[in-house]
Structures are given as structure tokens and as C-alpha cells.
Specification:
alpha/beta; Beta-Lactamase; Rossmann fold; five-stranded antiparallel β-sheet; 16 strands; elongated; binds adenosine-5'-triphosphate; binds magnesium ion
């Protein structure tokens, strides 16, 4: 146990260590204790004040009134000569009796510095918020969707209608058909347009990191976690739209957590103790067949129905080849390029090509051709290799289908198939077919083998 004088020693040590100025008076208003910081702030030294009634040394002091009414006072501004400071005052009570009072003061210059720092931080926060806002803005709208094809126009109309609602949207379409373009256009036409549009590609982020990307984590949630934790994309997208691209690649355990957010409107950060509310519209996209995935238990059916309030299927370019020329035109307009002469045969080749990479591939092909052609003309040899190759293969196929050998084989195949259709495939049938065709049975068997006709 400590003696009383040891206790006082401890107390004085603590009081000296405090960064604020402290002055204590007893129940008679006599100053019992001040610390170094008090002297620094007010300019009053220990030997001028200790053991003397406060009111004598500092006639304007308010602390004696705390002894009388027992009330605390906060943020009192004091100015004496050149010294300015802010004071908090409180009574010291023991067994329901006021036995003294304490005054705690802070130099104004420190308060001033802190205020300046706060102002700087606020400005920085505003700048960051602005930068963040720009980062999470959707830049495309419906006016950027080029095409007059009927099936495309139907999807655009459907998308415009759904933009006015707050329903979740599920977009399917092959790679490069414009899924993200549609998602942005819907967001920009919706009432959430002034809030963030946050895209995330579930296939591009390792599944071990996807959870912390989506939901964030609290500080110290795991080793190497960032100081201050991490804000997840759900929180960033609050009041806006979260675009879950390639949702078919989301791991099953996360699908469960996603479903919970969609159902409850709340989520919990990794390592977090409390649920956080969020208001986010989901637009999900994939080029995978989710129904097949559901059958194989790779995708949760309940989640599928949650995200699939409205389904938009964007047709591939090969189903709307009549849009190719307007898309080409829009590329030149957007780039402010002079429209080159595109020869008729090049247009025919572009029309015949099946565009597995859809609009993205068409855009790339045009950029490539423009770079290859130094004049204001795009010819066959300026086209990308893949397109030229498919065209050449088609030509070879067409040419070989014209060869005499090919024609004879096809005629023989048709004649044998027709004969077998009449006579049937039994041995008897084949004998009759051989007679009908005017050849021996052995020769019929030979030809069937050569022409790959099933026995
Ligand atoms: N109808 C369209 N009119 C004009 N440009 C389009 C159209 N559709 C798509 N594009 C353009 O094609 C490119 C690919 O579009 P987007 O990224 O939206 O496709 P995606 O379906 O999301 O592709 P992926 O499956 O590869 O993610 C973008 O540059 C986009 O602006
Ligand atoms: Mg995409």
C-alpha cells in the first residue's frame, strides 16, 4: 500500500505529464497545485501562487464560483495581457461535498493550430470526395448506344423503362456486346445518376480478395490489413449502382453474403461487429449460362432470382450486321477522323465476318485498319489478320465446293442416301439399293465407307 505522501507524489507526476495547464484550489479557494504547462500558458509561476487565495493573485478568476455552485464550465475564453487561452472548470467532490475545484486550460495558439489542421483536413477531404466522385461516374448514356437493328432497339427500349425503376437488372450477352455500356446508360438515366456507379469485375479479382473488395474490413481484421481498415465497394456505392460484372465467376460462399445484402439491405465488414445499412442498386452481367451453372450447383438459384428482376439480352453483332456501317460511322465521328474510302469488297468482308468479339472487335479492327492505311482509303490488306484469314478460308471452301471431284462425291452421296431411304438399311435393303444403283454390293459398301455414310 502507498502512504499519503507517496500518493500525492504520484498525482503530481501525472499532473505534470498532462499536456494541458492545470490549477487546483481547495475548498477555501487557496491554490494547492499548478503544473508547468499552467505556468507556460498563463505566465504565472508556482511561487507566486501556491498557498495563496486564487482571487488575490488573479482577481478575475471564475474558479471560486465553481466552489459555490458546484457547476462545471466549459470553453471559457480568457485573455490576460498577451496570453489567450480556453478554460474548462469543474468541482472536486468527495462524499457529496465540494472539497475543491480544478481548472484546465489550453493555449489558444494550440487550439488555433488544431483548428487550422482541421480546416486543412476538411479541404483535403472535399478534394478527395470530388476526385472519388469523378472516379465513380458512369460516362456513357443511351445516346452512346449506336444501332437501328430491331432486336437491339427492343433491348434499348426495355433498358430505358427499367432505368426509371429501381429494380435489379441482369444483362447477358457475348463478350464486347456492350453490357457495361448498357449498365452505365441505365445508371445515368436513373434517379441514382448523381451518386456513384461502381463497377467490379468478379472474374478479374482473386476470389480470396473479392470479399474484402466488396465488403471492406475493420482495422486489425487480419495480419497485413491496412491501418484504419478498408471501405468496401458496397459502402462506396451507397445510394448509387454497383455493377457486378462477370457475376458467374463469384465464388459460392460470397454469393450467400451477396444474397444477404440484397435481402436485408445490411452487411458486415470483415472483422466488424455491427451490421451496416446500404442502399445499392445491383446491375449484374455475365456471358456465362447461369441456368446451366445452377443445375451444376455452381450458382445459387435464390441469388439468380434476386438479381434477375429484369433480364436484358444484348444480341451479338452477327445477329445485327445491318448495324455495322452505322457503328463504323460513329467511330470516325467520335475520333473526329475524316471518313476514308472503304472499298465495296472490304464492306462485304466485314459483313460476312462473324465477329466473335462483337462491337469491341469491330472498333479494334477499324482502329487497326486506319493505322495500317496511310492514305484515306481502307483496302483488304489493311484489315486485321483474323478477318483476312476467315475470309481466305471461306474462299478456299467455296472454291473446293466447286471442284469436279467434290461435285462427284456429293452426287454419289445423295444417290446412295436416296436409294437406302427407299430400300432400308438391312442387308436385303442394301442388296436392293446396289441393284437400283447399278453397282455390286461390295462396291456399295466401299463407297459408303469412303463417303462416311453410316452402315
Ligand atoms: N451499341 C453500341 N454502340 C456503340 N458502341 C458500343 C455499342 N456496344 C458496345 N460498344 C462499345 O464496345 C466496347 C465494348 O463494350 P462493353 O465493354 O460494354 O462490352 P461488354 O459486353 O461489357 O464486354 P465484356 O463481356 O468483354 O466485358 C466499348 O468500347 C463500348 O463503348
Ligand atoms: Mg464488360
Amino acid at each position: 500500500m502507498y502512504t499519503d505522501s507517496q500518493k500525492v507524489g504520484w498525482l503530481e507526476g501525472i499532473i505534470e505529464a498532462v499536456h494541458d495547464g492545470i490549477l487546483v484550489i481547495d475548498r477555501n479557494g487557496v491554490v494547492r497545485l499548478i503544473n508547468e504547462e499552467y505556468s507556460k500558458i498563463t505566465g504565472v509561476e508556482k511561487d507566486q501562487i501556491i498557498g495563496r487565495p486564487l482571487i488575490e493573485v488573479r482577481p478575475g478568476a471564475l474558479l471560486p464560483s465553481v466552489l459555490r455552485d458546484g457547476k462545471t464550465r466549459e470553453g471559457i475564453f480568457r485573455k490576460e495581457k498577451s496570453k489567450e487561452y480556453v478554460v474548462d472548470m469543474a468541482p472536486i467532490c468527495s462524499q457529496n461535498e465540494i472539497i475543491g475545484a480544478v481548472s484546465i486550460c489550453k493555449s489558444i495558439s494550440e487550439v488555433y493550430e488544431l483548428t487550422k489542421e482541421l480546416k486543412r483536413s476538411k479541404t483535403r477531404l472535399k478534394q478527395l470526395e470530388k476526385a472519388f466522385g469523378n472516379l465513380h461516374q458512369a460516362k456513357y448514356s443511351f445516346s452512346n448506344i449506336v444501332g437501328n437493328n430491331e432486336s437491339l432497339k427492343k433491348v434499348v427500349d426495355q433498358a430505358k423503362k427499367v432505368a426509371a425503376s429501381d429494380l435489379n437488372v441482369f444483362i447477358t450477352g457475348e463478350s464486347g456486346t456492350g453490357k457495361e455500356l448498357f449498365a452505365q446508360a441505365i445508371h445515368n438515366e436513373s434517379k441514382r445518376r448523381n451518386d456513384p456507379f461502381v463497377p467490379i469485375n468478379c472474374a478479374a479479382i482473386p476470389s480470396s480478395l473479392l470479399e474484402s473488395e466488396l465488403f471492406g474490413y475493420e482495422e486489425g481484421a487480419f495480419t497485413n490489413s491496412k491501418d484504419g481498415g478498408k471501405i468496401g465497394l458496397f459502402e462506396l456505392a451507397n445510394h448509387g449502382t454497383l455493377f457486378l460484372d462477370e457475376i458467374g465467376d463469384m465464388p459460392l460462399n460470397l454469393q450467400g453474403k451477396l444474397l444477404r445484402v440484397l435481402q436485408e439491405g445490411t452487411f458486415r465488414k470483415i472483422g466488424g461487429l455491427t451490421e451496416q445499412k446500404v442502399d445499392v442498386r445491383i446491375i449484374a452481367a455475365t456471358n456465362k449460362n447461369l441456368l446451366n451453372m445452377i443445375q451444376k450447383n455452381h450458382f445459387r438459384e435464390d441469388l439468380f432470382y434476386r438479381i434477375n428482376a429484369v433480364h436484358l439480352r444484348i444480341p451479338p453483332l452477327r445477329e445485327r450486321k445491318n448495324d455495322i456501317s452505322s457503328i463504323i460511322l460513329s467511330i470516325f465521328e467520335k475520333q473526329n477522323w475524316k471518313l476514308p474510302i472503304i472499298s465495296q469488297d472490304v464492306m462485304q468482308i466485314l459483313q460476312a465476318y462473324d465477329w466473335p468479339g462483337n462491337i469491341r472487335e469491330l472498333k479494334n479492327a477499324i482502329h487497326y485498319a486506319v493505322n495500317m492505311s496511310q492514305q484515306n482509303e481502307i483496302r483488304f490488306d489493311h484489315l486485321p489478320e483474323t478477318i483476312k484469314k476467315q475470309f481466305s478460308n471461306n474462299q478456299t471452301q467455296k472454291a473446293s465446293s466447286l471442284s469436279l471431284d467434290h461435285l462427284i462425291r456429293e452426287t454419289e452421296r445423295k444417290a446412295i442416301m436416296n436409294a437406302l431411304k427407299i430400300t432400308g438399311l438391312s442387308v436385303e435393303g442394301k442388296k436392293k439399293a446396289a441393284t437400283l444403283l447399278g453397282i455390286s454390293l461390295a462396291s456399295l459398301y466401299n463407297k459408303m465407307k469412303k463417303l462416311n455414310i453410316a452402315p
